[in-house]
Automatic annotation (TrEMBL):
Species annotation: Carex littledalei
Protein name according to UniProt: Beta-hexosaminidase
Reactions catalysed, as given in the entry: Hydrolysis of terminal non-reducing N-acetyl-D-hexosamine residues in N-acetyl-beta-D-hexosaminides
UniProt keyword list: Glycoprotein, Glycosidase, Hydrolase, Signal
One annotated GO biological process: carbohydrate metabolic process
Family per similarity comment: Belongs to the glycosyl hydrolase 20 family.
Annotated signal peptide: 1-31
Amino acid sequence: MTPLSPSASMATKTFLPLSLFLLLLPISSLSSTLNIWPKPTSISWPIPAAIPLSPFFSIEPDFSSHRYLHIAITRYTRLILSERHRPIIPPVVNLSSSFLCSLQLSVSDLSAPLQSGVDESYDLYISSSGAALTAATPWGAMRGLETFSQLAWGHQPVVPIGLRIFDKPLFTHRGLLLDTSRNFYSVRSILRTIRAMSYNKMNVFHWHITDSQSFPIVLPSEPELAARGSYGSGMNYSIRDVQRIIRYALSCGVRVVPEIDMPGHTASWAEAYPEIVTCANRFWAPAGKPSLAAEPGTGELNPLHPKTYQVVRNVLHDLSTLFPDQYLHAGADEVNTACWEADPGVTRFISAGGTHDQLLEKFINLTHPYITYTLNRTVVYWEDVLLGPYVKVRPASLPTESTILQTWNYRAKNTKRIVQAGYRAIVSSSNFYYLDCGQGGWLGNDSRYDVQEAEPSDSLFNDPGGDGGSWCAPYKSWQRIYDYDILHNLTEEEAKRVLGGEVALWSEQADEMVLDAKLWPRTSAAAEVLWSGNRDSEGKKRYAEANDRLNEWRYRMVRRGIRAEPIQPLWCVLHPGMCNLEQ
Ligand SMILES: *[C@@H]1O[C@H](CO)[C@@H](O)[C@H](O)[C@H]1NC(C)=O
Ligand SMILES: *[C@@H]1O[C@H](CO)[C@@H](O)[C@H](O)[C@H]1NC(C)=O
Ligand SMILES: *[C@@H]1O[C@H](CO)[C@@H](O)[C@H](O)[C@H]1NC(C)=O
Ligand SMILES: *[C@@H]1O[C@H](CO)[C@@H](O)[C@H](O)[C@H]1NC(C)=O
Ligand SMILES: *[C@@H]1O[C@H](CO)[C@@H](O)[C@H](O)[C@H]1NC(C)=O
Ligand SMILES: *[C@@H]1O[C@H](CO)[C@@H](O)[C@H](O)[C@H]1NC(C)=O
C-alpha cells in the first residue's frame, strides 16, 4: 500500500466537488464557528474577522534551538502554508487588508523532558498586528502549533484575528495502544499514526509490541526471539526502526511506552526457547478441557524455569536501553492456569501444595523489583494482577502509587478498585475504548454463521442485538467513546490517581491496510475528552456540538493524509442539525 502523503494534490481532486455544494448552501447554515479538535479549554473570538497569511509566513522562535521543537516548527510551517483546507461550512468573516507575516513563539523551559505530567499548556493570541504563542515547555508549544494550524483555512490561507486561546489538558495520559503482534504494521504506518495522534494532541503511543502470535522486535541481547518468532520476510522492527519511531514521536510530542506482554501471551517466544514456554503450539481449546489461552496462539512463560528469568531480564534490559520513557509496560494479563499445568514441573509444584497465585507472584517478584530498581522504570501492568488472582503486585519496599495498573475489563468498578487500593490507573475499558470490538468472530469453521433465520436460542449470537461472535460487541462508535466518563463513580480523591486513558486497537482483524479507518476519527473522540472533557461550560454533555466539529475535523484529517472514516453522510454536514435524533 502507498499511504497518502500529506501533499495537497490528491486531496484537492477528492474535494473539488465540495466547493460546488458550498454554492448551494442556504444562508442560515453560514456561521462563524472555528473548528478546533480537541476543543480548547478557553477560546475567545468576539468579532468574526480574519487575516490572510503572508505567502512568506514563518514561525519565529525566540530561542536558538531545540532538537525536536525545531522539527515540529518546520513541519507545521509547511503544513500551514500548503494545507489549504476548505471547511465544508467556512466561517463568515471580514477579511483584513494586511497580511500576517509571522507567529512569535516563546518557551520558558526548553529543557523540560517529555514525560508524564509535563506542562502542555499554551497561550495563543492573534491580532491584525501579529500573533504570539507562549508555552511553558516545548511540548506545550507543539500543542499550540497544532491549534494554530487548525485555525488556518482556505485556498489563500487565512486565520482568525482578535482571537485568544488559553489551553491545557485535563489528563496527563492521553494514549493509543497499537498491537503489532497479531498482524504486522510497517514503520511507515506507525509514523503516520503518531503524526495523527499529534494532530489530536495525544501524547502516549502504547506499543504492544509482542504477543503470542509474533515477536517482531529485534532485541540486541535476544536476537533469536525475532529471528524465529517474527512473521519473517522483513516483518520485524530493527533497532534503527525503533529509534526512528521514538525520534519521530518526540518531534510530535508523543511518548512511546513499550509493552512486552508476559508471562501470558508468549507463545512466540517458544520458537526460540521452547523450554521456557508451557503449552506452546497446542490446540488452544481442547474439547472438554479448560481453554489453554484466550485465543489461538497458546503459550506462557514458565515461572519455575530458571532460564525464563535470564531471557526475561535480557528482554527487559534491552527495552530499557532502547526506549527512554520512564514507563515500562510488562503486561501480566490473562494468565491461564490450564496452560501452566501442561508443564510437569508446574504439576509437581501444584501437587506439593503450591498455588496458581504463587506462580504468578513468583514471576512478579522476580520482574517488578528488577524493572523498578535495576532498570529505574515505572512498572505498568494490566489490572489482572490485582483483580484476578491474589498476588502481591509490588515489592513491600515500594509505595503503592509507584505502580500503574491499566484497566480493561468492562466493569466501571474496576477503576475504583484499582485506585482504592492505592494504585495509579490508566483507563482502557473494553466497553468503551476497544476499537476492535463488534466485527464478529474471526475463528474459522464456525457453523453458527450458517443460519438463515435466527432462532430464539441463537439470540446472543445471531440477533441484531447479539454479539455476533465478538466478545466485546458492539462496535464502539465515536459517540460511545465521546460520552464515556473515565472518572465515573469515583470520589475526588480517587480521581486524582487516574492518569488518563488509552483507546486500544487489538489487531486480530487489522493491519496497515485498514489502520486509519479503524483508528480515526473514533480515537479523536477520546482525544478530545481526555484533553478538555466532554461537557460545555454549564456542565452539560456537548456531544451535539462535537458532532459538527468532528465532521469538519474528519475532512481535515483526510486532507492531511489520514484516511479517517466519515461519521455521517455529507448531506448532514451540509444541513447542520438536520441529522440530530433529538431536535
Ligand atoms: C464586516 O464589517 C462590516 C462593516 O464594518 C459590518 O457591517 C459587518 O457586520 C461585518 N461582518 C462580519 C461578519 O463581522
Ligand atoms: C528483519 O528483516 C530484515 C529484512 O527487512 C532481515 O534482513 C532480517 O534478517 C530480519 N531480522 C530478524 C532478526 O528476523
Ligand atoms: C514475593 O515477595 C514477597 C516479598 O515482597 C514475599 O512475601 C512473597 O512470599 C514472595 N512470593 C513468592 C511466591 O515467592
Ligand atoms: C531514575 O529515573 C528518574 C526519572 O527519569 C531520574 O530522575 C533518576 O535520575 C534516575 N535514577 C538513576 C539512578 O538513574
Ligand atoms: C459506585 O460506587 C459505590 C461505592 O462507592 C458502589 O457501591 C456502586 O456499586 C458503584 N456503582 C457503579 C456503577 O460502579
Ligand atoms: C469444521 O467443523 C466440523 C464440525 O462442525 C468438523 O467436522 C470439520 O472437520 C471441521 N473442518 C475443518 C477443516 O476443520
